[in-house]
Amino acid sequence: MSKLLRQSFVLLLLMTVITGVLYPLATTGLAQLIFPHQANGSLIVKDGGPIGSVLIGQSFSDPKYFWGRPSATSPNAYNASASSGSNQGPTNPALTEAVKQRIAALHAADPGNSAPVPVDLVTASGSGLDPEISPAAAQYQLARVARARGLSPARVQALVNACTRGRQFGLLGEPRVNVLQLNLALDAAQTHGS
Amino acid sequence: MTTNDFLQTGLFLLVLLLLVKPVGSYMALVFADAPNRITRFGGRMERGIYRLCGIRSSEEMSWKRYALAMLLFSVLGLLVVYALQRLQGWLPLNPQHFGAVSAESSMNTAISFITNTNWQGYGGESTMSYLTQMLGLAVQNFLSAATGIAVLVAVVRGFSRRSALTIGNFWIDLTRSALYVLLPLSLLLTLLLVSQGVVQNFRPYADVPVVQATSYTETVKDAAGNSVTRDVPVTTQTLPMGPAASQIAIKQLGTNGGGFFNVNSAHPYENPTPFSNFLELLSILLIPAALCYTFGMMVGDRRQGWALLLAMLLIFVPLLLACTAAEQAGNPALAPLGVDQHASALQAGGNMEGKETRFGIVNSTLWATATTAASNGSVNAMHDSFTPLGGLVPMWLIQLGEVIFGGVGSGLYGMLAFAVVAVFIAGLMVGRTPEYLGKKIEAYEMKMASLAVLLPCALVVIGTAIAVMVPAGVAGIANPGAHGFSEILYSVSSASNNNGSAFGGLSANTPFWNVLLGICMFFARFPLAIAMLAMAGSLAAKRHVPESAGTLPTHTPLFVTLLACVVIVVGALTFLPALALGPIAESLMSGH
Fold first, then answer.
1. What ipTM goes with this model?
2. Which of A21, B33, B168, B405 has the fewest CB atoms inside 10 Å of its own CB, making it the most exposed?
3. Closest CA to B491 of B367, B384, B364, B355
4. Contact between A127 and B138 using a beta-carbon 8 Å cutoff
5. Cα separation of B264 and B542, whole Å?
6. CA of B224 to nearest chain A CA: how many angstroms apart?
7. Within the 96-125 window of chain A, which residues sit less than 8 Å (CB to CB) from chain B?
8. Are residues A15 and A91 in the same domain?
9. Domains held by chain A: number
10. Residue-wise pLDDT tens digits, A60-98
11. Are residues A144 and A58 part of one domain?
């Protein structure tokens, strides 16, 4: 028993050093060497400082911006330091109520649009930080954004296309539009255009 | 289901099956008794470890000593994880200055990680220091997985050895699992994941300005004690950082599943692209599937390994398709509101609540079924928000005892218990003494196999009953009606089968839930493993029975079907009544 205990203790110590210290240090070193941009959060840098991450969505509610997925993080939407889904079940009346309000907000920002609303635009993402929307959700908002900015729909469409990624390797995942990149591109287009 | 749903599912299964043989035969070499090119390659490091620990590599253990070593090692690990959480406030590598975790939450988490469950009552990015994540949680990700593989290897030796008193050496099996199997695969996976955007650094969280400033309302007490609301402006966003990729790699490969961040693999920093999703998904099932092949090689008949794998697939694939179909059909409650849930070239459609855009439906359901078939428990979509039938599938896969792939090692030794029960039932039908892999199955083996099969079932049913009778249990429910019962049933099932995923709405970080689930996790892991080791000890001592005309061959389609049926019948008889009160009732009410 005491021999087993001693062996346990020393083996746990050695394994802790190997898997708990050497392994994360070695992988961090390699990651920082080979993929420094990705390893540090895929930050978007402007004027020398980070202004967001390609991978982490932000909250948009202004009609001149494309809106992302609804976010269930608290206390505010897209709180990246406390990722969370809504965990509302499909039959929960609170879910139906939330979806109604989201549809109402979309209609209030764009009263003329009576098209069916793409589901991802009115349902909360799993992480609450989803950086992307479906191309359908982008199309739904395109006319509104163009009008609010006084840009031609064709111009906005071109920017949407530039921020759209198809299935990875043509097969994996789903096509999607990066909302933060798109909105930054819109702001940049207007600054240069005016 | 769409064409693309089928394509992505098919590709995943194909790649998985192609990897079974190379990875499986590699592991067979790792655990072979005779030295070979692989154990020679790492021999110096391995021998160094043994020397420091005072382990003689020639020493063999009886099943009792093997079990005792496993238990001691696990309990010691438990104490370390517990202490790290309680003391993290005073320890280094804590840039966010997190304080001590509460006693019952620390104990729950410690049990959770040493039992390879990785149930998480806490939110990673707001609770655990980098040091706790690395030295406590990540280390146990390796060691609990290595322990599972070690126990499996010992159980298989029970079948392959003849008239033997020993079943191997726990220290050696553990060390080899960690050094030769888990570590190299994790290194490779970490780098692949970082290339996709998973973070791997030791920086403090990064504050960035937001493009559109927003605000939220907060209710606070003023000086007079009255509640007042005020607007809080939001002008920055705090991006979490940390050594995530290295931990995610092992959490998937070791069927651990404990996330670095709160929402686990739904978090864009844990799982940023469809390709990272594919890699993580593959890692969930890779070792459990490949171990079937290893098993076949170790008992000297590869067909036996393929037969077990086939029985697993026979249950896995139909359930996967059912889950995908249910989720792709969408939520009927949303259709009348003017929501478009149809799949098209521009959107995945379906029930997108709790799912990420980049994964859509099929990658979320593929993950949900894989993570619950294997006892992984990581999630890339919120199971609580699945449709009633879509959520029934992962819940039932857990309740089947985590033997459809299952945890690394533990899944296969659980399946071997079912195989023993299956040959026993077949033996009863034809009136002959049952045999499996040349060993007579007698009363002692049957007792141990029954214990292994029934113990998790009992824990689920009794635990759920206690939770719904006690106010502290019901207090955790988030969703009304039948779905609330599903949340409780799912959580107890998850803990009692060492899965670790949740219907996340349940507020389980309370003293009641931490204690109940802690007990479930502990008893699901160790008594079961010890019963299987006891069976192995008894089997190893037996002589080999030559095959005769009366022997039931255990590699045929007949036996594969029988085995799958036994697993399903046990799962259905035990859990259908409870499932009827939860997801089935909810489905009927929602008009599915």
1. 0.96
2. B33
3. B384
4. no
5. 46
6. 24
7. 96, 99-100, 103, 115-120, 122-125
8. no
9. 2
10. 999 999 999 999 999 999 999 999 999 999 999 999 999
11. yes
